[in-house]
Design goal:
This protein is 57% helix and 6% strand.
Length: 372
């Protein structure tokens, strides 16, 4: 059985409190005070009142001041207040209602009227509280389902990325390392809040999630070329380079297929397909160079999308420090020097500066996810 609602009655005249108490105590739990300041303390303490009956004309702190203080405190702003006062002028009532009072009862009180209006306000509050609880539950449920969907998406797409990586037996924990490098760069770039490189929290998270798909196009490269231990011919190298376009084309085809099959207005730049759009940018252009000498489209400078510029540093650093069938792993210091030397030619100068600042953290990630 639910406990009876708690009412707080405030009046500087003890006889008025006694009269209200006698009327209300058979139906409710009643707390009482003759002081406006004490009323504020009681309103913010347990048991929190479900309703306050508040006199207007009180010394030191009148009812209007008490109501304003209640409305400014997050703990008490939702408590309904009924003014109970001998002042019955229309302007007084209007002023009280403008301040946020739920109702206005004039003295001398009529018991039946008081009980009816209290019941009305308590039912209104119960309805509001129920709606608030339902909204909170719905928001939590939506958040849970979105988290589940994102988790399923991440697992599925990571599985696709791993499928591509299994084609290249030398890459080991390359996906884990490069995603961690990207996350490190994104985090520092966001903290800088550089107006020249705007990066929202949402875009930053999307870049990190999409990073493992950067080499998804390797599934389209023949094994004899992908696993060749010696130097590639010019023709073979051109075929290897095509993995960036193969990956981007596959992702863009998936976007087109989803958009054509869905009647809702989706866009590759916003909403549900933002992730795939960023993944396509990374897959397509992470081998471009700042000076325009990269591939496949010879983009230069800021024409290279930011996600691809970030991925470029992460991918090259990991390639330099990792053993491949055609080369030995380079020391961390050598890799740092080579990337620094590529500032403004191969890589975005700002990102190189950040990489140099973070190079020890890069080394820590490489050690943490080292190939067995």
């Amino acid at each position: 059985m639910r406990p009876a609602p708690t009412l707080l009655i405030v009046d500087d005249q003890p006889e008025n409190l006694a009269a209200l108490g006698d009327l209300l105590e058979p139906h409710y739990r009643v707390r009482a005070t003759t002081s406006g300041r004490r009323a504020l303390q009681l309103a913010a303490s347990e048991p929190c009142p479900d309703l306050i009956l508040l006199d207007v004309m009180m010394p030191e702190m009148d009812g209007y001041a008490v109501l304003e203080a209640l409305r400014h405190d997050p703990l008490t702003r939702e408590i309904p207040v009924i003014f109970v006062t001998a002042r019955d002028a229309a302007l007084d009532e209007e002023h009280g209602l403008q301040l946020g009072a739920a109702d206005y009862i004039t003295k001398p009180i009529r018991p039946a009227i008081v009980l009816a209006r209290i019941l009305t306000q308590l039912e209104n509050k119960q309805a509001r509280d129920l709606l608030k609880d339902q909204n909170a539950w719905l928001q939590a449920e939506v958040a849970r389902r979105m988290h589940d969907n994102e988790l399923i998406q991440d697992v599925s797409l990571y599985a696709l990325a791993l499928l591509a990586e299994t084609r290249d037996k030398d890459t080991g924990n390359h996906l884990c390392r490069t995603q961690a490098y990207v996350e490190l760069l994104v985090g520092v770039l966001r903290k800088r809040s550089d107006p020249l490189v705007p990066l929202s929290a949402e875009l930053g998270q999307t870049i990190v999630r999409a990073a493992p798909l950067h080499d998804i196009g390797k599934v389209g490269i023949p094994d004899q070329i992908l696993h060749k231990p010696g130097r590639l011919s010019a023709e073979e190298f051109e075929l290897i380079k095509s993995h960036s376009r193969i990956g981007a084309d596959a992702i863009n085809m998936a976007i087109d297929r989803v958009v054509s099959a869905d009647s809702s207005p989706l866009s590759g730049d916003t909403g549900a397909l933002a992730f795939l759009t960023v993944a396509a940018q990374i897959a397509h252009w992470h081998h471009e160079r700042w000076d325009g000498g990269g591939y496949p489209d010879h983009l230069a400078g800021e024409k290279i999308p930011l996600p691809a510029r970030i991925m470029a540093i992460a991918d090259v650093y990991d390639a330099l420090i990792s053993r491949r069938v055609y080369k030995q792993a380079l020391p961390h210091a050598t890799a740092v020097r080579m990337i620094r030397n590529g500032r403004g030619s191969q890589f975005d100068p700002l990102l190189v500066d950040l990489f140099v600042e973070l190079n020890e953290e890069f080394a820590g990630i490489a050690e943490r996810f080292a190939d067995v």
